[in-house]
């Protein structure tokens, strides 16, 4: 591949990633009066709770969301005040506090999960099964490529001390 062709393809790929980032490809909206950050926080808690039934610690949530602890604390406070999640002591370590969704939080997540599946399902319908599988394989390959380079993994933002 010629250098100018390589550079042009690199620019086009960078532009494609930028365009995708700007889209609301998940279909999530603030139907429940939640911000995108609040919805993503609830999704991360839901996912973490499936792996650890007691729920994640705030530090684990911050790492998963790639945000600072003050950001997680603020978001958790808002969501707890709205009755969507609750804090509780870890049964295995009474010093640790875990976070889990309330029944109402689960209901909100079920609605948002259905919206997301519907939106992404429309992409599958548009592309068809074969091209959707190709896209999945390519995206997984891109992820594997970047995940082998420690410099490519974005560390959580540093907190001001």
TrEMBL record:
Which keywords belong to this entry?
A: DNA-binding
Give all residue intervals belonging to the HTH marR-type domain.
Answer: 6-144
The answer to whether the entry has keyword Nucleotide-binding is no
Q: Which InterPro entries match?
A: HTH_MarR-typ, MarR/SlyA-like, WH-like_DNA-bd_sf, WH_DNA-bd_sf
Q: Name one GO molecular function term.
A: DNA-binding transcription factor activity
Superkingdom to which the source organism belongs: Bacteria
Record has Cell membrane as a keyword? no
Which terms under GO biological process does the entry name?
response to stress
Q: Which PANTHER family match?
A: MARR-FAMILY TRANSCRIPTIONAL REGULATOR, TRANSCRIPTIONAL REGULATOR, MARR FAMILY
| Name of the protein described by the UniProt record | DNA-binding MarR family transcriptional regulator
